[in-house]
Amino acid sequence: MNARSWSLVGVFSGLLFAYAWFFTEWLRPEPIQISSQIRASILQPKFGRGPVTLRRTNSQTGTVEAVIQTNVVGAVDKGRRARLPQWGEIGDAPGGVANVTFTLDAPYELTSLRVQDVPADGSAPRVLWDLVGKSVPMSSLLYGRIPQGMRAVKTNGVAIPLSPGAPYRLIVEAGRRLGTNAFTTRALSNP
Predict the structure, then answer these.
(1) Does the model's pTM come out above 0.70?
(2) Is 15 helix (H, G, I), strand (E, B) or coil?
């Protein structure tokens, strides 16, 4: 092959790559799939069983009660023991609305997270919660709770309260991957 043939092969390869990049989905990563749930209350996770009271009634002196711990972990190699996350107190969502939780299709190290409203009149959306950084690998998050490793761009880390029934959009990025989710919330009913 001469120089002219090599240059034609290079041009053809460049055009083929440009076509694949701009006009197909072959080189783009899959979008992040997100589902949202409205939760009126969120309870702390309880792993294992709590202490159990054992009653012995066949003894000569009467009833003897002893407390047995059933959730005590035996001697396990500390390198193999999984550490549980520190959850802290989970209160009501800001603004008197139900909490909104988001579940991702796989654990991701998020680099950007933004919640914005969706105005009906077509005006520019208002950003309610904007975080950047690199989070620990996570597959779920709660509106208003900053994931470990991320920091707020504005609003000093406090999420602006949501309005019940208004449409919102969550936009997350993990490197080159991007995902969006449209959601609403509802007002908390007084018991």
Answers:
(1) no
(2) helix
